[in-house]
Amino acid sequence: MKPLVYAFCAGAAALWLGGCGSASGGSATEVTAERGPMLYALVTDASGQQATMLSGGRYRFANDPVYPVTSLGGVIDINRNGMIDAGDLPAPELKLQTPQGLALTLVSSLAHKAQIATMLQNDFNLSETRLYNATPSGDSTIAAISDELYKYCVEHNVSDPSTLTLKIMQSLQAQIAARIGEYGSGEFNATKRERYLVRNELGLQTMTQAEADAMNRQLGEGDGTPLLSELNSTLRGTLAFMWNEEKMAKELYLALHAEWPHREFYNIAMMSESQHQAAIASLLQAYDINITDIDGEHAHYSAEELQAYGSGIFPNAAVQSLYDELYAKGVQSDRDALETGCMVEVTDVNDLNVNIALAAAAEADDLAATFTTLRKGSYNHYWAFDGALKVLGVSEGCCVLGETFCKTPEAYPDTRGGGGA
C-alpha cells in the first residue's frame, strides 16, 4: 500500500481564535514560519484558510490572510537544506503566530502583547517592521531572542510562546542581551547556532536517518501528491472512532481546565489534541469517510457535520459515555481532574496500539504512521499528568490509580526534551 502525507502536515481548521484583521497586498500572500525553517507545518489564518508550503519554511495563502496567522507542528529543518533528513527535529507541539506582517517566529508570537512589543522595541532596538517580518536566519538579534525564548519554552514545558508574560521576559533580559552580544560579535551562522542550541544546550532527540526516511516515505512520490492506501471497513471505522476519541480528550481537558486551571490541561488540549483531531479529520477527508455512515454508498465526508457537534457532544455513543463518566470524576477535585488525565492517555495508548497493529496488517502505512505519532504524544501527556500529580503531593503520580494506569518510562517513552505537557 502507498502512503498519505504525514497527518500533522495536512488539513485542519484555524486553532487560534484571536482578534482579526486583514493583510494588505495582492490576492496571494507569502509568509515564513521559522524556529529553524518549519517544513510541513499547518499554517492557517483566523478564518481557517490553509496556506500551501513552498520551500525553506515559506507558505503561500491563495487569498489575503485574516490575522492572526498561526503555524502548528511540522519539522524544524536544523541544517536548513529544505529537506527532512537525519538531525532534523519534529515539532508537533510548537505553536508560532503573528498578529501582522509576514514572519511567524517566537518573537512575533510575543508581539501581540503591547507591553512586550514595547519592551522588545525599546530594550533590543527592534523596529515594528523587524518584529513582524524579520526571521532568525537573516537577523542576528531576532535569532538570539528566538533561541533564548525557545530554550525557556523547552525547559518550562511551554508549547505556546504567546502565553509568556512580561515578567518572564524581564527575567530573561540578561540572558537575551548576552546571546545578542555573542551572536553579533563573531560570525553569525544560523545553521551552526541552531544545531548547537538543539543538540548541546537542550539535548533534544533529533531524527535518525531511518526515521527521516520513514517520514519522507509518508510525503508521497513524484510531485508530492498524497497516495492513498486501500482501507477495509474496520480501518474506516477506526478513523471515525479516533476522531471521536481525540475530540473527547481535547474537550474534556478544556472543560476540566475551566474547573481546575492546570496548564497541562490547556497546553495539551490546544497544542496537541486539537492538532490530533485535525490530523484524523484530514484522513477522514482524504478517504471520503462520513463519520456516522462509514460504508454508506452515498455517504461522504462532511466538514460541516464534524463542526456541528458541540463541545462535549459526540456521535459515537461509547465515547459519549466515557466523556460523561470521566468528566463526572474530574470535576470533583484537583486530584481527580489530573487522575482523569492519566486515565485518558492510557486509554488512548491502548486503543492506538490496537489500531497500529490493524493498520500495519493491512499495509496502510499512512494510518500506521499517524497513529504512531499520536501515541508518542499520549506517552508524553501521561508523564505531564504524572508530574502534575506529584507536584500536587501525590507521590505515586498516575500509579495511584492502580496497576492498569501505572506505567514505566520503558513502556511509555518520554520524549519531551525538557519534560512538559
What does this structure look like?
The chain is α+β, with helices and mostly antiparallel strands. The protein folds into two domains: 7-213, no CATH class; 230-405, Up-down Bundle (Ferritin), CATH 1.20.1260. The chain is 49% helix and 8% strand. The strands form four sheets. Strands 5-6-2-12 form a four-stranded mixed sheet. Strands 3-9-10 form a three-stranded antiparallel sheet, with no helix packed on it. A hairpin with a 4-residue loop joins strand 5 and strand 6 (58-61). Helix 4 (140-155) packs across helix 6 and helix 9 (233-259) runs antiparallel to helix 10. The chain is globular and about 60 Å long. The relative contact order is 0.12.
Structural topology:
Layout lengths: L20 E2 L6 E5 L4 E2 L2 E3 L7 E2 L4 E4 L4 E2 L1 E4 L2 E2 L12 E2 L4 E4 L4 E2 L1 H5 L3 H11 L3 H6 L6 H16 L10 H6 L1 H13 L4 H12 L7 H9 L15 H27 L3 H24 L16 H6 L8 H14 L3 H28 L3 H28 L29
Parallel strand pairs: 2-12
Antiparallel strand pairs: 1-7, 2-6, 3-9, 4-8, 5-6, 8-11, 9-10
Helix pairs in contact: 4-6, 4-7, 9-10, 9-12, 9-13, 10-14, 12-13, 13-14
